[in-house]
Amino acid sequence: MSAKPVPALTQQPLSVINIGLSGFGQTIRDCGGSACDLRWQPPAEGDAEAGWALARLIADERIDAANRTAYGRYLASQPVLTGVGVAGDVIPGMSGRIILHSGPPIAWPDMCGPQQGAILGAVLFEAWASDIGAARRLIESGEVRLEPCHHHAAVGPMAGIISPSMPVWIVSNTAGGNVAYCNMNEGLGRVLRFGANDAEVIDRLRWMAKTLAPTLALIIDELGGLDLKPLMAQALHMGDEVHNRNVAASMLLLRKLSTAGLRSTRLERGALAETLSFIAANDHFFLNLSMAACKAMLDAAQGVPHSTLLTAMARNGVEFGIRLAGSDDWFTAPAPFVDGLFFPGYGPADAARDLGDSAITETAGVGGFAMAASPAIVQFVGGSARDALANTRRMLHVTLGQNGAFTLPALDFTGTPAGIDARRVLDSGIRPVINTGIAHKEAGVGQVGAGITHAPLACFAKAVLAVARNLPEEN
Amino acid sequence: MTDVVTRFFPNLYRDSVALMQLSARLARLPGVAQASAQMATRANLELMKSAGVLDSVPEPRPNDIFLVLSGEADAVDDALRTAAGWLDEKAARGDEEAQQEPLRSIQMAIERAGANEGETEGQAANLALISTPGDYAAAEAMKALRLGLNVMIFSDNVSVEAEVALKRYARERNLLVMGPDCGTSIINGIPLAFANVVKRGDIGLIGASGTGLQQVSCLIDHYGGGITHAIGTGGHDLSAAVGGLTMLTAFEQLAGDPATRVIVLVSKPPAAVVAETLLRAAQHCGKPVVVCFLGASADSIRAFALTPADTLEDAARQAVRLSPSASAMAGADAPEASDRAQRARRLAAQLRPEQRHLRGLYTGGTFCYEAVLMLQEALPGLRSNTPAGSVGRIADVWTSHSDTLLDLGDDEFTRGRPHPMIDPGLRNERLLAEAADPGVAIVLLDFVLGYGAHPDPAGQIVPALRAARQAASQAGRTVLFIGHVCGTDGDPQGLSEQCQTLAAAGVELAASNAGAVALCRAVLEAARAPRSGD
Amino acid sequence: MIAARCIGGDVRPPSGRTLAGRVAARYAHAAHLGLDDGRLLTLLSGDAQRGMRTVNLNPDDWPPLHALLVPGSSVAVDSAGIVLGGSRIDLARGEAWHSPPLAAGRRPPSILRARLGQARRWLDDELTGGRPPPLASWHAAHCRYRAVLAAFEASAVAFDAAVYATLGLGPGLTPSGDDMLGGLLLGLAGGGDVARRQRLRAAVLGHVRDASLTTRASRDGLDQACRGWLSAPLAAVLDALGRPAAAGASADPLSGALRAQASVGGHSGTDSLIGLLDGLALAVGTREGRPPTRDRQRNLQP
Question: Which ipTM was obtained for this model?
């Protein structure tokens, strides 16, 4: 970077940012000067090494340029639902015995209960084993590859299990050419994504593969694709934040699907009725599409060297991981517990740690970042509508900008905060807010609550140190 | 140098009034000569070329906003970033002001100020004043520099490596890094951290020592002069490792400051190689420069055709003498000097023969250092925790011997407790102990006023003085208390009030530290001389 | 389903035909839809400003619609409605708006002359009043536009060059030069100056297909001016200019109409008005309508 001389301090009226003793700021104001006091805390939770590394990345023109590029690609993305396919056929690298899971990479013995239960269920669903015991032995033998969804352009909520025979949404970014995938939402209660794996669960998965998916494939064909950004934008104006509240979006989707389905002559009426009833009964049906859309938007930004833009936040129930547009590495910290309300009969002692890829929505500027659109969400933490606004506003300080595609009526139709910059998170100590469900720590019990959690700062410290390491010295 | 930069903002739509307001706001930024935001139609682009704003006509992109800025290269770059920020829609703040997120980082503070621009016309921040724990101070300073701010680091315990990295970065960009461990500065009349309220004038100060700067600026005020800026560099700046990087930048800035007509450098003697560079720069700056390198030989400074000063008081005096606007030098030739001998004899007469020793209890390190230099010949047994010249280091700071001068602000005293300028408890205890020593003739004191210092240093010491005096008198002795007050009448504590309180408590006051030290020396000499007559 | 309040005469395609397009731009209270046939439809919250390619919507319907108007997302328009995202704007029932005929016959020249002077003085005050100081490019556009007025008597080549130099020049989403020429076209037509109108129309049409010339919104505006289509505020001005002054000045519909037109956009309203008044003045042969004043002229010097 070339030296840029600036006018001497002595030739300007003084205007001070005061960091530390607030008395110094008061003195300046008493003497007619201008000063603002920071409410300062040691950055990076007091990790002086990360703090110094961070300081040297602030306002680095190479990083800023990389972020502009990555953020621009994210903004320009146009996710379109183009179809439904079988995971093994459409997802890259899905051949052979492989099961995808949520969050950063993790070995079988280290996995949390719900994720293990769901993987065993997937083995049964694939008929690679005849009972749970055999399934466990198969997994322990190492013959089934276990890999993060995120390594395969995919995402999955909670346990995030995708096995080769499962149906998946296919969402294409028509502006960038990349494609993202997500499994389909099974509904609430005893479901695979919370680790349940009994016969009812497996039967439902089989029905989804056999009836739901082919029906949806025909309907989407009839529709000729579906622009997801406008649909999400509309849902934000109807009280959803398209992560933890998907009521409006699911209804908007159902409206699209039902009219197209009824119009089509290629569909069998029974299957159509079952499909539409299944969707109508599930307030969260749209979540998996929202996630795929967000993944498509963020993957568009992947691969810009030195960028500190977050392209993923994901949890496997043990670790919370983030990825940056500048590299494919994960930066992890222990997954936090979720601060929230529990369903009757459950309490914090029942909760698993934060789980699932669904924080991709916050990474893409919706979910918790769009909480201002969805005041109903804050009731999960006993907050007020004002808190929802404050949460969205606070996120403006950690993002590169606002996404004009997702506007917030409560904030005068300005866009949601979008494009998390790891540097800004670490510098301000403001942790990205995530709206999420709470899984029971035992496999198969299901969702026991919902609430709000925050990304742990330690991931960001590691990420910033890595960026600093890989950045050539300025000359 | 004038620079022109251009930028397309694709598919952005703002109406003409918004674009004009944007252009006008940008054109008002310092260093920006012209700013224009337009739709990038062919005709608009060609007009800019024919008006000489553009060298060539870029490909028209009629649906994009085209921004052209000309002016000083750096200012234009900043303005471009500012413009990009303004063109990005930001959430309305409206009546939610009260709910605003507290400012948690320098970047947030800068952005908040940017968002408020236009309503408040506030000057963009240009200095970060950092007083965090030392472990984090360097990182905050680096962020501030990278965001284009100057920096004053009050914190200490910053590593030399970090200091060098910060100062190298800053030096290339004409930014100031005052500190680490910089206690005082005055920029454009605004006191920073521990500083006195001094009249404005035409003398610019640069100092590696906080109390040194305070003394010189207060005395200039006292002598009828005034200052433009007082720039603290921090105590390590003139070491060979740091190389005086801040002092060089500060010097260039004062040399180029039209309001500054005289420059004063205040420091302990720098590393030889640094001194050479600095004095050479001073020699050619075109303004009179007074150099007060405490303890350096006057000849080494005269060799560069600069004005040497051997004490802080002398530096102030020389500066005022050289100042074109402060020629009324009445105060500078203090009557103090001529009266001193007589005063010393009067004071010496109160002492018993065994009272031969001096104990200095300083809160200002540079005052202590200056006193050591001034007394090294007169008091061969002198020891101090700020050794200089021929004076050695005291073995145990907690036990005084014969003649002892202590800087109570030194690390050994302040570890885990506030600085004695803020908390007088330590000095009060020590004062009682010294006065109880039958061999002690004089306790030498300093009192530092100004922002950041104790709100009433004089009042705080009165009970201890009274107790010490009483104890001595019961032992049949009189202990002399000699001191000076570093401050001005503009300071919150008020120089006159403080002096009155101290005088009423029996403290013999001089106008400067050098004056107080000279008085001590004269008293001791008088006490040791064979008594004549009565 | 959102019902449009008012639909411009050129919005709905013929029955049975569906036009595809994309959201070209979105503002706080308006949006442009770019159709594949080259037209640009404007969606507006509220119906103060009606136009031939404008759909006026109930302000209560605007917030939910705003969310759908994501720039770049696809839209489809048929004679019954506009489909965007998951929603539909019903075009079948709203009130239709058509540009009134421009024919000059009903505006007696004597009245027009008197009223033009009045309007001119109002506009001069408006332009010198509390508006933000215009950019240099506004002044430049104004100079070039004056050159077009002078070049009506010059050679075809010189006239064409003067028009070309003015198009796309000036601040705003519809650059001032375009607005002035558009207003001029309408003024000439409204004043019945067939010869000058044809001359200017031919020159503008000759260039307006060039996409690099000016913004998409402005190209569409020029296209409409060439067709002689008035927006509602301009139509009101033209109508008021053709009637004698009413007794009480406050009741005079002219001042209300002028104010409404001047409040359109940032400068577009006044720029179009400059053109309209000049066009009418040229047509009826009055020396009124001689902007700018001497002082202003001096300001135009670089």
Answer: 0.89
Q: What is the pLDDT of residue C247?
A: 64
Examine the domain organization and report whether B59 and B170 are in the same domain.
no
Q: Which residue of C has its CA nearest to B27?
A: C135
For residue B116, the model assigns a pLDDT of 59
Phi and psi, residue B507, nearest 5°: -85, 130
Q: How many CB pairs under 8 A join A and B?
A: 230
CB-closest option in C27, C170, C212 to B13: C27
Low-confidence residues of chain B, pLDDT below 70?
1, 11-17, 88-100, 114-123, 326-336, 416, 530-534
Whether C271 and C184 share a structural domain? yes
Round to whole Å and give the CA distance between B495 and B498: 5
What was the pLDDT predicted at C284?
86
| Residues in chain C within 8 Å Cβ distance of A237 | 63-64, 66-67
Q: Which tokens sit at C215?
A: 């913004």
The neighbour count for residue A107, using CB atoms within 10 Å, is 8
Write down all domains in chain A, each with its CATH number in brackets. 1-40 (no CATH), 62-73+303-470 (3.90.1700.10), 77-292 (3.90.1710.10)
What is the rounded CA–CA span in Å between residue C127 and residue C136? 15
How many structural domains is chain C composed of? 2
Structure confidence at residue C25 as a pLDDT band (50, 70, 90): confident
Query: In terms of domains, do B301 and B158 share one?
Result: yes
Query: Residue C264's closest chain B neighbor by CA?
Result: B15
User: Among residues 202-221 of chain B, which lie with CB inside 8 Å of chain A?
Assistant: 204
CB contact under 8 A, A230 and C84: yes
Q: Nearest Cα to B447, choosing from B366, B362, B360, B368?
A: B362
pLDDT of residue B25: 79
Query: Taking the model in full, what pTM does it have?
Result: 0.74
B3-56 residue pLDDT tens: 888 888 776 666 666 777 777 778 888 888 888 888 888 888 887 887 777 888
Q: At C36, which CATH number?
A: 2.40.50
- Subunits that touch chain A (at least 3 Cβ pairs < 8 angstroms)? B, C
C-beta separation of A212 from A202 below 8 A: no
A170, A229, A254, A277, B318 from A220: Cα distances, Å: 11, 16, 12, 17, 89
CA A155/CA A146 separation, integer angstroms? 14
C226, C119: one domain: yes
Nearest alpha-carbon partner for C266 in B14, B16, B87:
B16
Q: Which of A388, A396, A338, A416 is nearest to A158 (CA)?
A: A338
Interface check for C265 against chain B (CB to CB < 8 A): the answer is: yes
Q: How far apart are CA A469 and CA C40, in angstroms?
A: 51
Q: How confident is the model at residue C290 (pLDDT cuts 50, 70, 90)?
A: very low
Q: What is the pLDDT of residue A99?
A: 98
Q: Which of B275, B298, B332 is the last residue of a domain?
A: B332
The answer on C89 and C24 residing in a single domain is: yes
Lowest mean pLDDT among A65-69, A161-165, C136-140: C136-140
Calpha distance A35→B129 (Å, rounded): 9
Q: Which of B8, B9, B13 to mutate to test the interface with C (most CBs of C within 10 A)?
A: B13
CA distance B176 to chain A (A): 7
**Looking at CA atoms only, how far is residue A76 from chain C in angstroms?**
9
C104 lies in a domain?
Answer: no
Chain B, residues 163-202, CB within 8 A of chain A, namely: 172-176, 187-193, 197
State pLDDT tens for residues C29-83: 788 999 988 889 999 888 878 899 999 998 888 877 887 888 778 889 998 899 8
Same domain assignment for residues C136 and C208: yes
Residues 28-67 of C with CB under 8 A from B: none
Q: Has residue C103 been placed in a domain? A: no
Please indicate whether, in this complex, the C-beta atoms of C212 and B42 are within 8 angstroms of each other: yes
Encoding tokens for residue C167?
């198009």
Contact A234 C66 (CB under 8 A): no
* B426 domain-assigned: yes
Q: How many domains does chain B have?
A: 3
Condensed to tens digits (0 to 9), the pLDDT of residues C189-216 reads 998 888 999 999 999 998 888 888 888 8
Tell me if C235 is assigned to some domain: yes
Residue range of the domain that includes C91: 2-97
In this complex, is the C-beta atom of A223 within 8 Å of any C-beta atom belonging to chain C?
A: no
